[in-house]
Amino acid sequence: MSIADIKKNAEGRMAKTIEVFKADLQKIRTGRAHPGILDQVSVDYYGSMVPISQVANVSLLDARTLSVQPWEKGLGPKIERAIRESDLGLNPSSQGDLLRVPMPALTEERRRDLTKVVRSAGEDAKVAVRNQRRDANEQAKKLLKDKAITEDEERRSLDEVQKLTDRTIAEIDRMIAAKEGEIMAV
């Protein structure tokens, strides 16, 4: 493995972290209903936790209401409980086999809570990026220890990985600010 490989690997992993963070931000609701909002909610299905999308059909009834149609009869109450206990602040109602999940209008307090969720997800993404930086730096130090590179090359590698980390964290900060602005807009 060379310094270029280490940098390329770190860059790819940090880009993947950004993509995962974008997907997480899309799941945080801003007042409109979309089926992806329930992707993070898991339900107990014969002893294992699986996403709702794997045990039910999730679709839009209108702009503010989701419908959840379980594929098996006994899953309705379990899905309803899982949605209630999630941190999404949703209150599903059961109509026979169909669950209706209305999206409540966001209150000022709920908007603040959602910005905290966004910041928390952003911090998790930053931690992941820092862990990737640490891994890349350890690989460079291992190459130096194995005498595959010089100290100057190792120092250059550490600097390049740090610059990459700084750019990635700045991108995460921009995404957090944009999402907070979107949530706080009335």
Automatic annotation (TrEMBL):
Subcellular location(s) of the protein: Cytoplasm
Keyword Amino-acid biosynthesis: no
GO biological process: cytoplasmic translational termination
Similarity comment: Belongs to the RRF family.
Cross-referenced PANTHER family: MITOCHONDRIAL RIBOSOME RECYCLING FACTOR PSEUDO 1, RIBOSOME RECYCLING FACTOR
Known role: Responsible for the release of ribosomes from messenger RNA at the termination of protein biosynthesis. May increase the efficiency of translation by recycling ribosomes from one round of translation to another.
Name of the protein this chain belongs to: Ribosome-recycling factor
Organism this protein belongs to: Piscinibacter sakaiensis (Ideonella sakaiensis)
